[in-house]
Amino acid sequence: MDLPENLRRRSFLLGAGALGAGAALAGCTGNSSKDDTANVAAPAASSAGGGGGNDAIGQKVVVGFSAPAADHGWIGAITKNAKAQAAQYSDVELKATEGTNDTNQQISQVETLINAKVGVLVILPYDGKALTEVATKAMDAGIPVVNLDRVFDSPLAYRIWIGGDNYGMGVAAGTYIAKAMKDKGVSSPVIAEIPGIDSLPLTQQRSKGFADALKAAGFKVANRVPADFTPEGGEKAASNLLQAAGKIDAIWNHDDDQGIGVLSAIESAKRSEFVLVGGAGSKNAMDAIKADNGVLKCTVTYSPSMSSSAIKLARLIGHSKGMSDLVEKEVPTSITLASATVTKDNVDQYMQFGFTS
Amino acid sequence: MNEQVSSTGTTSTGTTAPPAQEQKRVERAAASTATPTSRLDRVLANPAARNLGLVAVLLLICVIGVVESGSSFASQSNVLTILRLASTIGVVSVGMTFVIIGGGIDLSVGAIVALSSVWATTVATQDFGPFGIIFTALVVGTACGLVNGVVVAYGRVVPFIATLAMLASARGLAEKISDLQTQRVTHTGFIRFFRAEPAGIPVLVLMFAATAVLGWLLLNRTTFGRRTFAIGGNAEAARLAGIDVRRHTVALFALLGLCCGIAAVMIIARTTVGTSSHGNLYELDSIAAVVIGGTLLSGGRGSIVGTVLGVVIFSTLNNIFTLQNLDTSDQAVAKGLIIVAAVLLQQRVARVPGTS
Question: Which CATH number fits domain A61-158+305-337: 3.40.50.2300, 3.40.50.150, 3.30.450.40, 3.40.50.300?
Answer without folding.
Answer: 3.40.50.2300
